[in-house]
User: Fold this.
Amino acid sequence: MSNTKHKTKTGMKWWLLLSAAFLVLIAAVVFFVQNRGGSAVQERQVTLTDVGFDTPVTLQATCSEEDFDRYTKIVSDTFLQYDAYFDQYTQHDGVNGVYTLNQQAATNPVKVDDAVLQLLQDSMNYMEKNPKFDITEGKVLSLWHDAREAETPYVPDDKDIQAAKVHTGLEGIEISGNEVSFKDDTVQLDLGAIAKGFTAGVAAEKLHEEGLDNGYINAGGNVVLLGEKPDGKDWVIGIQSPDESGSVVQLVTKDPVTMVTSGDYQRYFEVDGKRYSHIVDPDTGYPVTWMRSVTVIGPADQSEAADANSTTLFLMPVKESMEYAEKNGIEAVWITDKGEDTGVKPTYTTDLYDVYVSDGLKDVIRLSSQG
Assistant:
């Protein structure tokens, strides 16, 4: 009788030991999976300040340290490479990009990389759709760039502006295979209104190919959400106040989206108390003052389109801009100084601003606590 009890107790002990060992093994496997490369899976963020486009680029992701280093390198390499392609002010060794086209394409065809060709063709399509989006006004934009970057900022001479406005537009660009040529030297390209959104989209695509499906890229206001939040909660993204820290309104969504803001507070200078933004109307040759900002929000894989559309919408009066957006299926948020006569009733009003929201966003845009 006592032997039976002893055997039963011994068996139970072995069973408990085996169970405990199994649980330890499972825990070890889980720990290894979450800590491959020696670092835990956790939320990580880095801001890169030396990757071109005259803007910081932030990457956030939930992953191991080893994976995050790999993802960061992808973002850094992509932005550096594409900045070399689209920089109109500096020659980059071994790159036939926008700078080379502006220097040589009027005298002989220039063979360009596939990425340059793709963005050039896409930009020409946007320009055909709305000439306010003008990639051939590079001479005008260079005048304002030099004025803004001078030790003492100044307003360019109107005679120089009027002379620089004379350019042949799309008719002056010829593409044959991968070769681009200009019919005359009045054409000077500037892809600044679309290049950053295009590049952010390329970087996001490369990250997805490497297995990243959470987090975001923020390239100076060009935001691409890479997937839903790992904890299942909503993304809450503020649209910046033009004059203060914090946001005026917030986007609340579970879905990955892209959002791009064009505003007069991003790159500007002041002369005699008047603010001059970096976004110039190709019809007048002068920076526009219709609004403080416009933010275009769309599917996460349409960063390029959001960038181009935000510039286009910024270049029109608010009412015309809203009508164009509705006609073309563009969802956006416009911010003006409070009390501006736009001919449209604002969706929200704060102490400082009036906010206009397209119909498709009214359920996901709310006033922020800072607004």
DSSP finds nine helices and 17 strands in the chain. The longest helix spans residues 2-34.
